[in-house]
Amino acid sequence: MDVPVSFLDQLFNERVLHDTGVDGLYARSALFEDVISRFEAFALSFGKDEISESMVFPPGMPMPDFETSGYMKNFPQLAGTVHAFCGHDRDHMGLLQCMAAGEDWTKGQKATDVALTPAACYPLYPILARRGMLPEGGAYVALQSYCFRHEPSKDPARMQMFRQREYVRVGSAKQTMAFRETWKQRGSEMMELLQLPHEVEVANDPFFGRAGKIMASGQREQELKFELLVPVNSTSKPTACMSFNYHMDNFGQAWNILQADGSPAHTACVGFGLERIALALFRHHGFDPDAWPEGVRKVLWG
């Protein structure tokens, strides 16, 4: 009996992705990157007349801002920090001896002032806070960043290093809630144009520990997070390819982002998992974009 070939192995066999030997860390082909760039252009066409500015962030963020975000409190199992060699000549010799002997050489590494960015919108909030009070209309920012989450997996849609394209709305509760509802509708419209099966469901983040279960329950009850799900690696467990989040004034208070009236700002974001959406397109339309449905090609290639 033939053993089914996993979707990940198909991606490797077709050279869409390339194995590095570490689960969730893959080299990407030019074809894969082309699909992502075309989807980004498609996504940006929806909100281009609404944004106040655009930003692209590196995959690292300042440690103090990372700590202010509360990520270590809620998701320590996913976090990553940047460590580096900070020793002298003698320490270097010891490091080389450990490597030569096949021993652990990382014990001499020390934390730097950089953490790996876990969510694309996090670096934005301290920038807005440093500017002072928001204008009357708040802020509406398009941004992109590489992100890191420590969850190695054979599921190609669960990468450790991945990109998020986001729109972030910062302002009043009314402004941010209206933004999220608009993007929930747009998200479904986008998936229909790409001819991808999908559903939008209330969701929760993977909060850590016993207290995290209570937080996750509260998040679902308040309907603070919705996800747009598409079958990618599994039909029984579809993948979150977009998320629609309302943070209330949590980040406004954490970073002291103030509205024009002096009250803490509310925030909301819509996030597109760029690698996940590309994988969904390959999964449902095949590995040759030239053979994709004409309607999909028109959306992405014009």
UniProtKB/TrEMBL annotation:
Keywords: Ligase. It comes from the Bacteria. GO terms for molecular function: ligase activity. InterPro entries: aa-tRNA-synth_II/BPL/LPL (IPR045864). Signal peptide: none annotated. This is Amino acid--[acyl-carrier-protein] ligase.
